[in-house]
Structures are given as structure tokens and as C-alpha cells.
Amino acid sequence: MRVVFELAGPLRQHAAGAVDVEVDVLDGASVTDALDALAKAHPAVERRIRDDEGLLRRHVNLFAGGDLVRGSEHSTVLCPGERLVVLPAVSGGGVGLS
Amino acid sequence: MATTALIGTAKGLFVLAGERGGTFTERGPLFAGENVDATLLDTRRDALHPTWFVASMSFHWGPTLRRSDDGGATWTEKDEAPVAFPEGAGASVARIWQLAPGPAGEPDVVYAGVEPAALFQSSDGGRSFQLVEGLWNHPHRTQWAPGGGGLCLHTILVDPRDPDALIVAISTGGVYRSDDAGATWRPSNRGIRAVFLPEPDVEFGQCVHKVGRDAADPDRFYLQHHWGVYRSDDGATTWQPHEAGLPSTFGMPIVAHPRRGGTAWLIPLQSDEYRCTPEGRCRVYRTRDAAENWEALSDGLPQSDAHVTVLRDAFTCDGGDPAGLWFGTRSGEVYASFDEGDRWELIASHLPPVLSVRATAG
Questions:
Q1: Above 0.85 for ipTM, yes or no?
Q2: Chain B contact for A87, CB < 8 A?
Q3: How many CA atoms lie within 13 A of B51 on its CB side?
Q4: The model's pTM
Q5: Does domain A2-88 have CATH number 3.10.20.30?
């Protein structure tokens, strides 16, 4: 089946400007499976979403069906055509970002 | 003398270019919004047209490394993470704190120091990096602890006589030395007092801020510690305090002259709690006698109400003759001296906080 990553603006430059990036996964695939497929198809995008250990970056949010999937990437099963929305988290105000 | 300085800031890279004695043009921000923690102007292949490396970190999207072979006109960046821990290491690169050239005769060798503290080596001119596992697997590693900036490996020095002899420094971990190209490492901190510990005379755990190697004697080093300025004359085996003339022994950067032995510079800060220039005076201190004495250099620098901070990699030497010195402040000023520190000029202001400065002149 095919699922779709909807990319935040800053990520699109790493996918030739695309807003939506489709990946093929097996029926019953999880969010982790979709991210693994994204890593093969668009490594420059995926490495900005997950770190070296495969964890979602602290200030990146990933939504499936409108739900935040941080911590449940392995257990969240996707439907055909499901949209996975990648957004930068609201993380301003600290010394680092300010 | 044409000079280029890469100013890494908390909001991107700024490039200053010009002739000594003239005006400098400012270009930037490049990679806006990213912390540019480390840059390298690698002159080993072509002194006049160095290869540029820029390591940065986006708070959202993580660290990356870019390379330019045409003076910053175009950039290349790997799709895959350019500096990454291998699967199973149980760690992820948070920031790239340091980029350093390998041996002069091996221009394809480039080193990267990262947070959490680890050393990576590239053997293909910085296109890919591999973890130096000898240091990563050192039994001390689990006892290293982050300072305020994070657990970083920030200093990488290759012995000009022996490409297999490496010195690295870690905050907080201390100095480590390898004589077998990184296969094995030993702590090299004897004499450096960790005054923030109940027992200051420890084998490792020192908060070394920066180390420079003497130009004439490769076994001589100058070291700025969390408290204390030290010199080693025996290849970093033992260290002795050398602080005569300094208003404070706290500070972050230390820079050794690239050609003249016995000469180095540092910028003291007032205490670990305040971390700004002492007495509201911005002063660089220079030694010309291998740290036996330090003299204040203030001509052209603000001498009242100047409460500035200079971070460990925000002070550098451009390699010109006479040596040009550059430093940037957390308050966004960039100063340079083209006579080895006697006279300083304000080159840029109103920049974001300056994290790193590297420059080349030729």
C-alpha cells in the first residue's frame, strides 16, 4: 500500500520541492515502517525527522490521522493512503532558539 | 593580503572578506536559523582556494555538514547523515563541535568532534565519517559528564611529526592522547586541577576548554581549563600552571601562533559564574615566552562597560604573516588584529551570538 508524508516547508527543499512524498509499505505497516521506507527513498528528509538511533527528533512532531505519534511509532498501524504530517514543534523561547 | 573569515553564529553563517587594512564585505546569513558550531577552511590542497566545511545544527532538524569547493558560491551536502553513530552505538550526534584537518600530507583525512563526546574520522575528504571506536569504547567514557554547553569533544590536534599521534580534549572529560591512530587512548591530565571536584587531582574529568600546540615544539601545549591556564612540555603528559599577568584564570579559548614558538593568546573571563570580560574591559592576553608571562592587549578594544563573552572556538588565527587574529563575541561583534594583537579593529557588529570563527589569509 502507499502512504503519504506531508512535509513541513523547510523539509521540502530536501525532496525536490515536493509537499507530499509517497512511500510504498506492506499492508499493516507501522509508522516506523513508513519512516524506514522514507529513509530509503528520501534519506535527506528522514534524517531530519529521526536521529541516529531512529528516534523522532525532540523538536519534530509527526501526526498520523491527526494524532501525535511520538512514542507510538512502532504500534501505530497505517491505513492505505494515510497521511503522515511532519511539523516543527513549537519550541521557541529558550536560549537556543531565541 | 586577501582575507576570508567564516563567522559561525547562533543564526547562521556570515562570511567576511576583504584586504587587510581595507573594508570587509559581509555576506549572510547562510543557513539562516542554524547554529554554526564549527567551520574549517582546509588549505592543504590549495592555500589560496581552501575547501570550506560548515557544521551546523538546526534545533528542529538536527545537525548537518556542508562543503564548498568554490569559496562558498555553491555547497554540497550528503543526503544521509554526514556524521552519525553506527547502529548499535546507542547514541545520536547532537552537534558537531569541531572540524579539524588531518595530517598535512593526508589531505583526505578530516576529523570531526561531536556531542556526545566522540571523534569521527573521514578518509575521503570529509564526504563520509566513521566513528573512532577506540575512544568511544574507552572505559572512562561513561564517566564523562556534560558541562553547560553539552558533553563535547572540541579539540583535535594531530602531531606534525607523526600522523598517528592525536590529542583530543573533552568537556568534561579532559585531554586524551593516542599514539596509534586512535586505536587506543590514555588520559593526559596530570597536573590539571579539577577545582570543581572535592578531590581536584583526578586522572580524568577535567573541564578542558581549549588546547593549542606550540609552533616550534610539538611536545609543548597551552591549555585553558575551566579554572587555570596550563602548559605542558612533555607531549601533554604533565601540566603546570602558567598564569602570571592574567586578571582571571577562567576563560574559554586559547590560540597558539601558527609559526612562532612561544607565542599564544587567550581571552580571560571573570569567573565561571559571570563569564564576561573582567572589569568591563575587553582584553586579549598574549605570551611571547611560552606562557611565562602574559601581557594585556587592548588597543582598539572597548575598555569600559564591555561585558562580552568569547566562546572557545570563537577566537582564531588566520595564518597570515604577520599573524592575523579574529574573535567574535556572544553579543555579535567581530574584532580582528593584523599585527599579532597590538592593534584591534571592529570588523562587524550586530550579528547574532558568535559561536565559531575561522579565517584564512594569503
A1: yes
A2: no
A3: 18
A4: 0.97
A5: yes
